[in-house]
Specification:
Elements (H helix, E strand, L loop, with lengths): L10 E6 L5 E6 L6 E3 L3 H4 L5 H4 L4 H5 L19 E2 L11 E3 L6 E3 L3 H13 L6 H18 L2 H13 L18 H23 L1
Helix pairs in contact: 5-6, 5-7, 6-7
Length: about 200
Amino acid sequence: MICPNDNIEMHQVKIQSHYGQPVILEQCNKCGGIWFDESELYRAKQGEAEKIEFLDSEMLWAPSAIENSIHICPRDGAKLFRFTDRYFPEGIIVERCPVCSGFWLNRGEFTKYQKARQELLRPKEKSPEDIKLEENIQRLLELHQTGGADDALGRLGRFLSTPLDENTLLPLESAQRAPAEENTLNVVLNILITILRAFVFR
């Protein structure tokens, strides 16, 4: 196969997939670019880039020399286009063939891609919504352990069966409800939302 960048014959390199199966890629000895057939980029096992891109950090982040501004697919001769996808890591230059769906990555881009994927696998800080959900679940568990769950569900049932005012869409008796009851109602509603979210996102 001919390198899309500098028009010389590429050589084959072998990496491992996620499942331990070998994947054969084409790499250019001159520019270091790598050709991936359709799904090979996604199948590459984490850490495989370091085996075929022997680059020091200074060379990795330096821009690679681009001989041709227009790259041609080494598989079928179609013009390659810059690949963009909102789920693909930003800042990585990848070109794709519209015919065979293969990918061309210039020198160092495969390493950057695998580093970006590794970052996505790291645990992220909990969002305020996640923290609130955990607090609601904890409150629900505490109510269950103290026997207050039946009382809470009873209050919720009474609230859901309360007639609404046609103009305000508020419960007719909301004006007479004491602040303590209103607070209890809010707790019960939060618990109900927690239960629903737990079932939807589990």
